[in-house]
Amino acid sequence: MHKKTTLRDLKVLLLKTILPVLILSTSFYVTSAQNVVSPPKKDGKRTQTSVVTARPGLTKEMVKANRNQLPTVQATPTDVPAINMRYSQKMAAITAQGIQNPPTPNIVNAVCTFNGGLVAGDLTLNNGRFFRDGVPSSCAGPKACPGPFGTGPYFYDTYTMQNLTCASQCVTVNYIANVGGGDVFVVAYNGSFDPANLCGNYMADGGSSSLSGGAAVQFTFTMPANATVVFVAMAAQISTACPSYTMTVTGLTCTPPPACSPIGPSVLSLTPGPPVASTVFNETFNTVVPLPAGWASQNLSLPIGATGWFQGNTGVFPGNTPPGYIAANFNNTSALATISNWLFAPSVTLKNGDTLSFYTRTTSGTFPDRLQVRMNTTNQGVNVGANNTSVGDYTTLLLDINPTYTATGYPTSWTQFKIPITGLAGPTAGRLAFRYFVEGGGPPGANSDYIGIDDVVYTTTNLGPPPVSCTGSVTCLKVDITGGNPGATYNVVINAVPATAGYPRTISNYTSGDCIPVTPAVNTTYNLVSVIDASNPCCVGTGNSGTPTVTITPGSITPIAITANPSGPLCAGNPTLLTVTGAGGAQTFTNSAPVLIPGTGTSGLEALILLIYW
To answer: Are the CB atoms for 310 and 287 separated by under 8 Å?
Structure first.
């Protein structure tokens, strides 16, 4: 029988998988229809006879054919230290955040085991041992020190531990004399042990000895936060060994927790819906004179030539999206020189995950061309320096097409390039620019001919709106946690208004950004109570904020069922057929793109996006 998945399960799956998928999607780099960086090839280069021309929009071959008919035109340039804080300080920090009932149990379930033996050569009690009154200490009923008994010598061992849980703990001690002879008795002391004063710093004891091969003895006691305890395991018989005993301690950390790295700020919010892509600009260059709004150019070639960026000549080749495109050519300089002709895209807010895409091409590749794409993250200006080798504020090279000037390194048909924006610390006001940059270019040069650029598109993504919630549906909250130790998980506490059963609610071993599923029955506002390092309860976060509200749309969920065929495990790359029933009839899907499943319209949810991965 095929496994069925409800809409509720599917939404949780959707919200848990879409963020990693989006993150993975940013790892793709430049796509191209051909290899744009080819090994250098020196064979086959031809030196063109010097032909100086001011006629724009031509290739070198076209100039050769028309050089006797060319007019002359004047060239013009175009334009922690809060580590292991005391419990009282941490509680004060929590109170400052408005937490009325902070979680304080900090329960430690680790069992610390100590194996030892009371044998010749151990330390000895020479003025008596502890009196065994038969009454074990307990957290609920602490007792007075029973006092010393006998003379000695009695063998003893000591073990020291500290309460590093930032809370008072009820500590459980269990001890047993293993088979082999003798007996063992355990006493707990606060801070230190003086064998000459058995009642000094006394805290608790087991009341009786554990005999070899007999039953274990257990006692409990309350230990304040940050206090140190010394456990003394002693024999009850003079000069009598206990070759083997075992003592376990529960309620304290067995090893010191990692040092604190300050946690916070942390923000509670609704997990947004799938990111929404939007186009910032989309330029087809059907008109280049004047340049489209927001665009600018600057030709720093030296000596400057007759052309800058100009309307593409459809006689050379048509636009990728006809009719127009923008072009540059060898006449950007008037001599054998380095061409450096800049075309600035409109100012934008640069964000990681954004994409710049464009189409470009050259003619035959006989005279190799080259194009760079550069980024300015300093400002939104057009400072590129003052000469043909300077880059000014455009220091980040995003793409370099044909830097080794090969005949096949620049595409000879319209080819799309996609450049993902990465490496930014956050949203940045900046600008992108194209640079027609050709060394050894110009009319007499072996390099530079004619290039076109078309269909330049800059896209960004914005957080989508929170998904619609209806009665009984699952909504995801998330806590974005900054600071803390790398790779740390946290114990997060959230509360709900109005009062809701199960709240305040603790989410243990939480990873920043993960989904916290909630299913409110009415409009509910949530708040972040505390964030504590799961491996060290003394590391309490500060700067908690966020009060997201889940608004419930009246209506009920229309269940759907998804059946997979085949239903068993699949190898990577194998297809599967999914049949969806109950959402506007039965439908089948076999692709890995988002699929829109029409809703019935009765629940207030008109559609569901299904993501299929294998």
So the answer is: no
Cα distances from 460 to residues 277, 279, 348, 374, in angstroms, run 6, 6, 10, 18
Q: Alpha-carbon torsion 551, 552, 558, 560, what sign?
A: positive
* Structural domains for the chain: 47-77+276-462 (2.60.120.200), 111-250 (2.60.120), 561-610 (no CATH)
CB within 8 Å of 160: residues ≥ 6 apart: 228, 229, 230, 231
Strand partners, 114: 247
Each residue's pLDDT tens digit, 86-120: 333 333 333 333 333 333 345 567 899 999 999 99
Beta strand spans in 368-427 (E): 371-376, 396-401, 415-420
Measured between alpha carbons, how far is 387 from 403 in angstroms, rounded to an integer? 19
Amino acid occupying residue 504? P
Q: What is the dihedral of CA 523, 473, 275, 509, to 10 degrees?
A: 90
Closest CA to 231 of 177, 167, 175: 175
Rounded to whole angstroms, the Cα distance separating 482 from 497 reads: 25
Give the sheet arrangement for strand 544-545, strand by strand. Answer: 516-518, 475-483, 263-270, 544-545
Q: Taking 50 as the threshold, does the pLDDT of residue 188 lie above it? A: yes
The one-character DSSP state at 444 is T
Place of tokens 């030296």: 302
Q: Rounded to whole angstroms, how far apart are CA atoms 524 and 496?
A: 7
Rounded Cα gap, residues 452 and 318, in angstroms: 9
* Number of Cα atoms under 13 Å in the Cβ half of residue 408: 9
The rounded distance, in Å, linking the Cα atoms of 450 and 406 is: 15
What global pTM score does this model have? Answer: 0.50
What pLDDT digit, counting tens, does each position of 300-335 carry?
Answer: 999 999 999 999 999 999 999 999 999 999 999 999
> Which has the closest alpha carbon to 58: 342, 442, 449?
449
Whether the link from the prior residue into 265 is cis, omega within 30° of 0, is: yes
Phi, psi for 114 (deg, rounded to 5): -125, 125
Let me know: does 479 contact 510? Beta carbons within 8 Å. Answer: yes
Residues 209, 185: contact at Cβ < 8 Å? yes
The residue with greater pLDDT, 229 or 108, is: 229
Tell me the C-alpha distance between 414 and 454, whole Å: 9
